Amino acid sequence: MRVDLNCDLGEGFGQWTLADDEALLDVVTSANIACGFHAGDPMIIRKACESAAERGVAIGAHVGFRDLAGFGRRELAVSPADLRDETLYQIGALAGLARAAGSSVTYVKPHGALYNSAALDFERADAVASAIDEFAEPLTLMGPPGSQLQRAAEAHGIEFVAEGFADRRYTAAGTLTPRSVSGAVIDDPDDAAAQAVRMVSTGTVESIDGDDVAVAVRSICVHGDTPGSVHTARRVRHALESADVTLGSFT
């Protein structure tokens, strides 16, 4: 069995840093790098691309709403046409810096509020898929299994990779529990590791209410902005490998 381990990276701005990108890149197989809208600036993005390229880690465009102040976690009113263009703009910016680092962008993963809304809203999902479709090179789209993002990818003939989260609780409907709900974020590295192994080995996860939910995934995410993310990522990787799971990028 083979699975990808991804993490959100490059999410600083100026003198502000959020996560230990270097340490996380020693653990993961794919890096979702912020493209400047919810976080990241040209220097941070370039450094993240260079570090990923040095380690042979796949680079993905972590596109989001234009919301630096809210870290891309606030719902914004953006028309589908504007969202398509803003998504394409972000992919292009990352692609240029990735190419300068001797690598390339191979997939797209929406961030925060865009991820959650596009998973449920086909118009938004289609805007993201349309941007990928218009990009000069083939790209994969990453998102929740069975979501509108998957439907949009299939409609555009784009490869889709279903993703699960090691460090987030799920609802009975198979969506992520809102961060405003107590217990939505899994802080214990052992609990996160156990959830990752269960998702990969059984295709299910226990919801925050105790229900079994089907979650068939090809990639597991650990959030870089969660406190202790490096330790959690290492614990998740060790647990997966101990379960005879081969870790490697899907690209």
From TrEMBL:
GO terms for biological process: carbohydrate metabolic process. InterPro entries: Glyco_hydro/deAcase_b/a-brl, LamB/YcsF/PxpA-like. Keywords: ATP-binding, Hydrolase, Nucleotide-binding. It comes from the Bacteria. It is an enzyme of class 3 (hydrolase). GO terms for molecular function: 5-oxoprolinase (ATP-hydrolyzing) activity; ATP binding. SUPFAM superfamilies: Glycoside hydrolase/deacetylase (SSF88713). Its EC number is 3.5.2.9. It catalyses: 5-oxo-L-proline + ATP + 2 H2O = L-glutamate + ADP + phosphate + H(+). It holds the Pfam family LamB_YcsF. CDD domains: LamB_YcsF_like. Forms a complex composed of PxpA, PxpB and PxpC. Belongs to the LamB/PxpA family. PANTHER family: 5-OXOPROLINASE SUBUNIT A, UNCHARACTERIZED PROTEIN YBGL-RELATED. NCBIfam families: PRK05406.1-3 (NF003814), PRK05406.1-5 (NF003816). Catalyzes the cleavage of 5-oxoproline to form L-glutamate coupled to the hydrolysis of ATP to ADP and inorganic phosphate. This is 5-oxoprolinase subunit A. The gene is pxpA.
